[in-house]
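User: I'm curious whether this sequence folds into something compact or stays loose and floppy. Could you predict its structure so I can see for myself?
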Amino acid sequence: MLSERELERYSRQVLLREIGRGGQERLAGSHAAIIGCGATGSMTANNLARAGVGRLTLVDRDFVELGNIHRQNLYTEKDIGRPKAIAAGEMLGAVNSDIEITPILKDCNSGNIETLIGGADVVCDGTDNMETRYIINDACVKRGTPWVYVGAVATYGMTMPIAPDKTPCLRCVFPEPPKPGALPTCDTVGIIGMMPAIISSMGSVSALKILMGGKGAIKQEMSVYDCWSNELTKVAVKRNRTCRCCSGRHFDFLNMKRRSAATLLCGRNSVQVVPMGDGDIDLGAFARKLGRAGKATLSEHMLTVKLPAGRVLTLFRDGRAIIKGTTDEKIARSLYSRYVGT
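Assistant: Here's the prediction. I'll summarize afterward.
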C-alpha cells in the first residue's frame, strides 16, 4: 500500500488512467537494473527514480569527466573524477529518499551480469557499446527477464522493448555484432545533448509498462527518432524462428570465456583494461607501490596515478583500469602489465 507521503509525491502520476493507484503500487514493489550510467543510463535512472520504482540497481564502470556533463544530467562539476554509479546514487537518493538505490562500481561482462541483474524485473540499457548489449540480451533471454534497448548518437536515437518469448530479441534484429568501426560513435560523429534525454525517456516509458505487468501494449517495433529533423520512424520487427539466442537457446556472448580485454571507450582518449582474474585488490598497497611512478591520488573507490607522457592510470577496486592519454589498446595493455601486473 502507498503511504500518504507517496500518494502526495506521485499524485499527478496516479491521476493518469494509464497508471492509477494500482499501477503506482506495482512500481513501488518493482526492481529495475540499469546497466551504464552515462548519457542514456543517467536519464533512465532519473526517470525511474522520480516515477517511484521501488528498487534501482545502478551499474557503471567509469568516472565523471567534464565532457560528460553536457548530456549526463545526474552530474555536476563537483562530481568530476568520482565514480558515476556512486555520484548517480547520491543524487537520486536526494531526489527520492523513499526508494532503495544500490550503486555498483563494476564492469558489466559475461562473467558477472547474471549476478548484477539478479532479482530485477526489468533491465535498462544505458551502455555505449554493442558487445555489452549482446551480453545483456543473452542473460535476459536466458533468465526470462524483460529489457529495454536504448542507443543514441549524433542527432538520433533508437529504442526497443524486449520481452523474452513475446517479442524479438536483439539478435533477431541484429544477428551478429557489427564489425569494428562499422557504426558511428559519439567519438567519430559527436552527439547533441538533448538526444539521450529524448530517447531514454521513450525507453523509460517502455520500462514502466513492463513493470506494471504489461499495462499498455508492448509493440513489436523499434522506434528511431531524429531530433534535428524531428522525424520519428517506427520499424516493425518480428521474431526470427532461427535466431540462435531466443529460438536456439545458444547464449554465445554469455558463455564466452572470460579473458583480459582492452576496450576503447566511446568519446574518450582512453582505453579500459579488464583483467582475466576476478576479486578485489588492495588499492592502498597499489598507492604505495605506484606512488613512485607518478603522483598518486587515492580515494575510497579508485586510485589515480599520473604517468609519464601525459597518461593517467585510474585503477578500480575490482582490478580494472582506465588509461587516459592513448587510444592504442596495445599500449594500454602494456602500461597495465607494467604498472599493475597481468
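Summary: The chain has a mean pLDDT of 92. Residues 28 and 54 are 4 Å apart (CA to CA).
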